[in-house]
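Appendix B. Chain record.
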Amino acid sequence: MSTTAPERKPTAPSKHEPAVPGERSWTVRVREAGVGALPPEKLLPDGQPTYVASWIYVFGVASLASLAVIIGSGTILALKGPAWWHYTGVGHFINSVHMWSVELFFFAMVVHLWGKYWMAAWRGGRARVWMTGAVTFLVAVPCALTGYVSQQNFDAQWISTQAKDAMNSVGVGAFFNLTNFGQMYSYHVLLLPLAVVGLVVAHVLLVRRHGVVPPIELDRRVGS
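Structure tokens predicted for this chain:
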């Protein structure tokens, strides 16, 4: 008498295995693409070439440090409101910290931007690195302008009424109304800062991915 083995029921796939062999979820694909573009040794390196010890990179770091102060002081000002920064001593101080950190941000960024321009920082496939830095400066200009017209004082009134003619002359006055405090305040505390921070993050990540551009003399020596 022959006996047959009992039929085995199919087991459910392990939670650590894909449901269908060879199928990968979008989270796995995103993770692998991120690790492939920015391996840990590039994202958080433990060493840099000797030519990174240059003042031009100090100004780049100064731009990042001043941007952090801008965001911190600006957050406090946005939470407290115009009456606080106009009529209290602490408010005056935080407002001054915010303004002078903006001045430092633009000074350091312009020096870094022009320095990298004369160093031809777009060499070696680094065009996007240079472009994100340049576009960051262009976006930061209207961000600062909306800050000046959001002060709620006579200085802001004069700047907004004088600058509105420039906006009207280029045809954007209907969309970018400098005399509309609510619109300018929204641009200054939300939309434009998000754009600046996003561009700065993209710039830093691209620097990590492609590395710091070598001096022109060293690049020529290696190429020859």
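Further analysis of this model is presented in Appendix C.
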